[in-house]
Amino acid sequence: MDDERSEQVRSALLKAFGVFVAIAVVIALGTVFMVHALGLNQGDGDGSLGAASTTSPSPLPTKALPVPSDSASPTDEPSGLATPSEGGRGDIQLEVSPVIASPMERINLTGTYKGADNQLLQIQRYDNGTWTNFDAKTTVRVGTFATYIMTGRAGENRFRVFDPKANKGSNVILVTIQ
Hints:
Helices cover 21% and strands 31% of the residues. By secondary structure, the protein is of the alpha+beta class. The longest helix has 37 residues, at 2-38.
């Protein structure tokens, strides 16, 4: 009788252990799947998880329309906080999407600035005859930058990005807030 009872206990323990192992495998596989699906597996190459991803995000979609003043004579160019250095035009290229937006709608600013990696750029708005700093900045990563702004100021707004260290401004873009 004791042998039969011992065999039943042993059988129950083995079944419970089998169920425990099966549950552990399902949880482990589910965790691995979720980590990969959520993109949390971007470590530094040694198998450990990094604190932050070092890859730059893909650029936001942009399609900018030329600002009429860009093709005008240089004397029509607004002056402001700082004038871009001579020959600097074209070094920083700025694009915007959308060019017509509602108040406080996200306006994507993207562009290129070759040879200025890790450079902090200030977003500026042309306001009453001068360039003023807008409450947004972006950093150049691998020659590109991307950020967004939101404004409630109705009408035509002129924006640019400005490199204060090099005293260079980008092309001027026009955004209409309706």
